Amino acid sequence: KLKVMPQNPYLAIERGAPGRIGWRIHYFDEIDSTQEAARELAAGGADQGTAVIAERQSAGRGRMGRTWHSPAGVNLYTTIILRPPIPLADVPRLSLVAGVAAAEALEREAPGIVALKWPNDVWLRGRKTGGIIAEAVTDAGQNLDCVLLGIGININLAADDLPPELRDKATSMRIATGHPCDRIAIADSLFNLLDSRYMETLTRGFESVRPAWESFSALTGKRVAIVEGGRRQSGVVKGIDGTGALLLDIGDRVERIVAGEVSAEGAYE
Ligand code: BTN
Q1: Residue 135 C-alpha to ligand 1 middle, in angstroms?
Q2: Is the CB of 79 under 6 A from ligand 1?
Q3: Ligand 1 center to residue 133 CA distance, Å?
Q4: What's the rounded Cα separation, in Å, for the pair 29 and 16?
Q5: 202, 239: one domain
Q6: How many CA atoms lie within 13 A of 9 on its CB side?
Q7: How many domains does the chain have?
Q8: Which of 35, 86, 198, 235 is surrounded by the most beta carbons within 10 Å?
């Protein structure tokens, strides 16, 4: 009853000691969601830095209950197990940190067209190519046990393979640059950059990574609307603070926004 797994092409980029990002990479041809595989590995005691990569997901998950379009053979779908010694409330910052690492990894292949849309959408020329989700797993006492950091990046997805509802919102590295990209090289850069940005965050705090996040910020200086829990606020984005909250100038004061869906008012790139 052995299920024959295809050879893991990501074995070549495993590196470092247990605890480092990507020290071990579990590879699946097809899976429901890499988040679920990582959850099981974490429950079994997998060390920090253990990653799961799938060629295809049948139930890829996005933020806010959305699905993540996960066709076979073209993109990167990965979940990394983190065991940070931080309070539960600080977990969302890690998804911003991952956004910086993802933006830096794509910047190498597609210089000048990469941006981050708060909190952590990765954009190429104003369209979404990557998304990040940070799921906290807690123990019985509601203390943080581990974080399942999920990263999806559209790499070689062709325009024709985008479902109609995503056509004017989503893109891929291939669509935006006009040429196919090496998924394994991108995963390699991503894991390396995430390893250093993550370690930097643990030793020096999110404040240390903030300038890098700001340098990719798509919406700083732009007028946006933010919807959260039925409440809508409009203002001009000033940037983010040292906790990762979005700073929104609403005229008479600056509001700290910790959650919500941001949309630009008017055209932007
Ligand atoms: C978002 O922008 O809504 C977040 C998308 C996160 C997608 C990735 S793909 C790998 C991992 N497995 C999942 O089911 N989701 C994340």
Answers
A1: 10
A2: yes
A3: 6
A4: 24
A5: no
A6: 11
A7: 2
A8: 198
